Structures are given as structure tokens and as C-alpha cells.
Amino acid sequence: MPNSNVLIIESNGTRADIITSAMQFMGFFPQRWDASLPTDSMTHDWRAVYIGGIEDETLCDQLLASLEVPVEQLLVLVGSDSPQLERLTKGGSSHAAQIEVLDFPLRYERLAEAMRRAPTLRTQSNPAPLRLVGNSTAMGRVNALIRQVSPFDSSVLVLGESGTGKEMVARAIHDCSPRRDKPFVAINCGAIPAELLESELFGHEKGAFTGAISTRKGRFEMAEGGTLFLDEIGDMSLPMQVKLLRVLQERMYERVGSNRTQRCDVRIIAATHRNLEVATAEGRFREDLYYRLSVFPLEMPSLREHLDDMPELITEFNQRLQRRGLNSVRFSGSAMQSLRQHNWPGNVRELSNLVERLAILYPNSEVRASDLPEKYRGTQPIEETGGSVVRAMLDGQSKTAPAHNRHLMDAEVLLPEGGVDLKDHLADIEVGLIRQALDITDGVVAHAAKLLHMQRTTLVEKLRKYGLQSACRSNDPAAESGTAVA
Ligand SMILES: Nc1ncnc2c1ncn2[C@@H]1O[C@H](COP(=O)(O)OP(=O)(O)OP(=O)(O)O)[C@@H](O)[C@H]1O
Ligand SMILES: [Mg+2]
After folding, report:
1. How is domain 6-115 classified at the CATH fold level?
2. Domain limits of the chain?
3. Which of 188, 262, 320, 442 has a beta carbon 3.0–4.6 Å from 231's, enabling a disulfide?
4. How high is the pLDDT of residue 303?
């Protein structure tokens, strides 16, 4: 049995079970806190702790200390209604920068997103580096810029919408640079309260402010010789921008509460999804800092601008799932076509989350267009038309509607430029219509068969073929796989 790596502190049994199962599913090794079990680092490999219903502040602090993990290497997940939330997130708490707040009912996607921040997990439990993939013209340009700028110490400003891969690019520049064997330290300037950011960046001396119980290194010091990634730089307060500018100009800083000046040798890569030129014009971002940071600007394309990379990105995300011991998922031609029509406001991260979600719903199987969550189905004229046929039948318009819909089908179903896998496409339509018929008839197979003008036995065969038994009523014999057809 491997060492536990996530400690669950939760008095509510149901919630503890939910978190524990979700963590196990993601490939972590959770341990529920129990006073009789040790929590020291000799017997465990702590990466994260979940804090829920625990009233005793002293016990909570003792437990965190007993993990013997440096504060910056421990992700702290806190339930949004935990009695400890306010205390742990307020200024002065040494854990504030590493906190992720979780709402209940728990969303798997949210938990997975939060766990990706577990600091050392990336390098220790998951040693395979994440690959920046993409052969499209747009990504080719990004790769060329990475190669050009990496060997130098120039500051880089990575721009682009949320989820386009800005942090990945920052890591890629570091990994291709002569500093690759030194630390890459990231800090999200937008997520840390303004009053804490200074001490996070520059460190503090013991007693520098209430709550500074010991001397602590800042991110500049941790990144010495390597690269400091200042994420969401556009969210930094103006007073903090002044302090950062000084370090960039003089390469010197002081810890909070100290007057000893320290030199630093750190390459700066900054990123933001904001338009800094507008922010500068509006006086929210200092012009001098903007010019210092944007010596080498690098604009990330939105996913809409490199849809051709989608198959390769999906392969990469499947491989990441497999490395975490999870299942992967495939997409049919028509599903891929639908995905190309989506707008992707969340860019590559949205695609990565979708792959993970579908891999849970359809483990090691093929996802068809009709299996996609509704907003990803795009404009599937055939399925939509089919749906209206069923609805029209249900509305008792079966005498007039089908002719009208046949007309719609003729008019709307255009052969895509690259052709279509007809068998696959027709199967998609079939699955879509069967699902709708089952939805409408509340999962009663006999009624759905009537709606689809087919024998019940034929429908049962199709349900088996497409693995749709779960869409039937649980007391319908068709819901049981392998049931003899009546
Ligand atoms: N070209 C790519 N190849 C492989 N994975 C990618 C690529 N681009 C982005 N990703 C993945 O997409 C997710 C989001 O990437 P990243 O965190 O770098 O984006 P971001 O632009 O920093 O987002 P945000 O603005 O929200 O902070 C990550 O899981 C990352 O691994
Ligand atoms: Mg980012």
C-alpha cells in the first residue's frame, strides 16, 4: 500500500466519504484523520489536506504542523462552510496562498482543477513532464518564439485568453533555457490578497507582522538562479507594482521586516489574460512596469484559432489520464465535427476538462456526437430534425409533421467538405433518437419502441448494441444486460 498523500479532516461522515472516493478516483491515496493514526512525514507523502467540519482551531493547527510539510508545498482544500475557513484565508495565515475553497455539493471538475495545484505532485508523483502539443500554424509560431527567447534572460510577457496554455509556455521557456536545472517558481498574483503578496514575493522576518511566527523565504529567493513566473500580473495592485519594478530595475530587494538588501538572479516570465495596454491607458497598470515586462511579448492563440490541434490535444489528455491510472476516451468522427463547432471560451483547459469528464462517463469507449453534453453538440441538423419528428409525433401531429421534417432533412443535411463516415453518422442519429424516445417515455422500453415504430425486441437489441440499458427504467427487463429478449 503506497503512503497516503491526502489527509481528510472532516467530522461529517458523508462528506468525508465523498471526498475520499473522489480522491481515490483521481489516483490519490487519501487517509481520513483519526487520532490513533500517525500523520508524520516518515510514514506519509502529504501533498494536500482537506479541512471540513472541525471546530477546534488548536487541533487544526497542530494537525497541519504534524504533517511536517513546508507551507508552500501543501495544498489546503477548505470546505466553504468550514469553521476554519475565515481564519485560514485571512491575511497573516501562512497557508492563505495555498488554499482552494470547495463548495458542496462537490463538483468533480472543481476538485480535479484544485488538485492540479498540489505543488510537488507534478514533479514527484507524476514525473512525466506535460507536453506542449500542437502542429498547427498558430502553435508552430508559439514554439518558434519559445525556442528563440529561451536561451536569453529577457523578460517574457505571455498574453492570451484564459486556459490557452500561458503557464505551460512559461514552463516550456524555463525548460529550454540554461536555467532548466534551477527552480521554476510560480505565483498567482491575482489569487493572493494584496497585503500578503509582498511577503510571498520577498519573504519576511520573524515578527514582521502579526502572524509572522517564523522567518520565511519569498518566491524570489526560492527561484534564485531559476525562473519566477508571475501569473495574473494584470491583477497586481499599484503599490505592489512599484515594489516589483524596483526589483526588476535593480535586481535587489529586502524581506518584509528586514533592512538587509538581497541580490537576486531570477528570470521573470509574467502572464495575464487582461489587456495591459488598456489597463495602462486607464492608469490601472504602470507603463514603466509594462515596458519592463514586455521585452518579449508572446501571444497565445485561442483554441478557436488552432482547432486542427484538437486530435493531438485529446491524445495528450488521454495519456495524462492514463498516467494517473484513469481510463481514456475516444471520439467518433461526428463528435469531433461537433466539437469543432463549439466556441471554446475556456480554451484548451475546457477541452482537457471535457476529456476527463467524458472518460469518466464513457470509460475506454467511443463518444458519439449525441453523447456529448448538450452545449458541445453543436448544430447537428440531422439529430435536431430527428428530435422534432419524435416531438411532433408525441404532440399528435404525426400526420403532417414528418413530411415537413423530411423536407427539413433534405434542406439542412449538407455533406461536409471532407465527406462523412455515413455508418457512424447514422448510428449517431439512431442513438440520439432512441435516447430522446426513452427520455420522453420515462425509460419505458415498450412505449419508446412504439414511438420509434419498431418491435420492442428490436429496440432491446439496439439498447444492448449501444450500451444504453442504463437509460431504461431499472425495473424494465431491458435494463439488465444479457436479459433474454421477451
Ligand atoms: N498546447 C498545449 N498542449 C498540451 N496541454 C495544453 C496546451 N495548452 C494548454 N494545455 C493544458 O491546458 C490547461 C490550461 O493551461 P494553462 O494553465 O497553461 O493555461 P493558462 O493560459 O495559464 O490559463 P489561465 O489564464 O486560466 O491561468 C493545462 O492543463 C495545460 O496543461
Ligand atoms: Mg495560468
Report:
1. Rossmann fold (3.40.50)
2. 6-115, 137-301, 304-376, 422-486
3. 188
4. 98
CA angle at 249 for the pair 243 and 250, rounded to the nearest 5°: 90
Pocket test for ligand 1, best of 167, 184, 231, 312 (most atoms within 8 A of CB): 167
Q: Identify residue 471 by its one-letter amino acid code.
A: A
Fold of 137-301: Rossmann fold (3.40.50)
Looking at the CA of residue 130, tell me the nearest atom of ligand 1: 31
The 3-state DSSP composition of the chain as helix, strand, coil percent (nearest 5) reads: 45, 10, 40
Residue ranges of the chain whose pLDDT lies below 50: 1, 120-127, 381-412, 481-486
- Separation between Cα atoms, residue 193 and residue 88, nearest integer Å: 13
Which residues does ligand 1 sit against, CB inside 6 Å?
A: 130, 132-134, 160, 162-168, 273, 313, 316, 348-349, 352
CA of 163, closest atom in ligand 1: 23
What three-state secondary structure class fits 272?
A: strand
pTM to 2 decimal places: 0.61
So what's the pLDDT on residue 424?
Answer: 76
In CATH, what is the architecture of 304-376? Orthogonal Bundle (1.10)
